[in-house]
Amino acid sequence: MTEKIALVTGANKGIGREISRQLAAQGVLVLMGARDSQRGEQAVKDLRAASLSVEFVQIDVTSQPSVEKAASEVERRHGRLDILVNNAGIALDWFPASELTVEAFQQTFDTNVFGVFRVTKAFLPLLKKSGHGRIVNVSSGLGSLNRNADPNSTLAIRNQLLAYCSSKAALNMMTIHFAKELQSAGIKVNSANPGFTATDMNQHRGSRTVEQGAAEPVRLALLPDDGPTAGVFSDTGAEPW
Ligand code: NAP
Question: Which domains are assigned to the chain?
Answer without folding.
Answer: 5-238 (3.40.50.720)
